[in-house]
Specification:
The protein has 423 residues and is of the alpha+beta class. The protein has 13 helices and 22 strands. α2 (51-60) packs parallel to α4.
Length: 423
């Protein structure tokens, strides 16, 4: 099977590596890929957000399966376009991708499906006064989200009413995220450990199967300080999450959501990322994403022992999924970010030590924001590398990940020092 991985970040590097190791896969192409994927796949130029261009490339290269990494191509309808050519595509059609493309619509689906979630309301550009008044009704912990896509950064979680007000004004005016924020969702803040559960779906609400749970770290600084990011690290498995909890999430949240979508004519395929808060009163859904999480992908895929190509192909074709199995080893990933991330990341700095880190046993260095300039590997984004490591326990995987990360350097590198600490 010839597979095209669409995207160019750390998640796509992890997917490409997993697919390259799959017995069912004979060749992996990455579009556009990155300097890391170039070592295990053929990087090909393609406008990943253009469904027609991706479908044309799949035709030209005889691709059997397109595995879509980022959310924007899914929202734009790349699965619809590739499927219309008679080729398999792993991911939801555009109608299903709206779960991530519109947080307001996602909340509507959750309520209709009876899925527990935070109290919330949606406001548009002309509703600033009403939005500010709604903040006053919340119990001192505020969440303000852009309705549209904002690369994982369009969320403010704060105990400061003034900060929440500022977010409302900057979002609705378009100053912060343009049209993505001119509609926003305000929620009550929830407390408790977070859980990321990635679920593989084949279009049958009863055929969905969960992957190993993971937990990620969204804030830029140690102790969950500072602004939200796309994610600064993750680990899997999560000791406080047992099979009974996962079964409950599938029964009370994922299953009802998939059935609600089916009732709306959407047979959801691909990955459904359930982001939950384990509150004192039970799990509540924070958000759905419609693709592999990043950096959760970088800890879940390295643990997978099931053939990833076979799994994705079965889901894309609407067939029953194979048994999903994982190594008992834990995996921890640490994100290495540029100076100034997430607000204004510095780029162009020369990176050293990647080959040495990647050569460590059980370590995988995934490229997230890098490029080659005159033979030098340089920073080219906010999140630059994710350093993942396997180990018999979370603590040992963590130690290996940080030891490998210590080998890597560039000017202004920042990272958290507390990923999976004390687990």
């Amino acid at each position: 099977m010839r597979v095209l991985v669409l995207g160019g970040g750390g998640r796509e590097h992890a997917l490409a590596r997993g697919l390259a190791d799959s017995p069912s896969v004979t060749e992996v192409l990455c579009g556009p890929g990155n300097p890391g994927t170039a070592g295990i796949a053929e990087n090909v130029e393609v406008a990943a957000d253009d469904p027609g261009a991706v479908a044309d490339l799949a035709d030209a290269r005889g691709i059997d399966l397109v595995v879509v990494g980022p959310e924007q191509p899914l929202v734009n309808g790349v699965v619809d376009a590739v499927s219309a050519r008679g080729r398999l595509a792993f991911g939801p059609v555009a109608a299903g991708a709206r779960l991530e493309g519109s947080k307001a619509w996602m909340k509507e689906v959750l309520v209709a499906a009876g899925v527990p979630t935070a109290a919330h309301r949606t406001f548009g550009a002309g509703d600033e006064a009403a939005a500010l008044a709604f903040l006053e009704t919340l119990p001192g912990f505020y969440v303000v989200k852009t309705d549209g896509l904002a690369a994982g950064k369009g969320v403010v979680v704060t105990e400061s009413l003034d900060e929440a007000r500022d977010a409302v004004r900057s979002y609705l005016s378009g100053d912060a995220f343009g049209d993505a924020g001119r509609t926003l969702v305000i929620e009550e803040g929830l407390t408790g450990p977070e859980l990321s559960l990635l679920v593989v779906c084949n279009g049958d609400p009863d055929g969905a199967r969960p992957l190993a749970p993971a937990q990620d770290f969204k804030r830029i600084g140690d102790g969950d300080a500072g602004p939200n990011t796309g994610g600064m690290g993750a680990y899997s498995p999560v000791p406080l999450v047992d099979d009974a909890l996962v079964d409950g999430v599938m029964r009370d949240a994922v299953g009802p959501t998939l059935r609600e979508l089916a009732g709306r004519g959407i047979d959801y395929g691909g990955v459904l990322y359930a982001g939950l808060m384990l509150t004192p009163t039970g799990p509540k859904m924070l958000e759905y994403n419609v693709r592999f999480g990043d950096p959760e992908c970088e800890v879940v895929v390295p643990r997978l022992t099931t053939d990833l190509g076979e799994l994705c192909a079965a889901a894309a074709a609407g067939r029953p999924l194979p048994d999903i199995r994982f190594t008992p080893d834990a995996c921890v990933t640490v994100v290495l970010a540029s100076e100034g991330y997430p607000a204004s990341p510095r780029t162009g700095d020369v990176i050293t030590g990647v080959a040495e880190a990647d050569a460590e046993p059980g370590v995988f260095v995934f490229h997230a924001g890098t490029r080659l300039v005159d033979g030098d590997l340089v920073t080219a984004g906010g999140r630059v590398l994710t350093v993942s490591a396997l180990g018999p326990t979370v603590a040992e995987a963590r130690s290996r990940a940080y030891a490998a990360a210590d080998r890597i350097a560039w000017r202004g590198l920042q990272r958290r020092s507390d990923i999976a600490a004390g687990v």
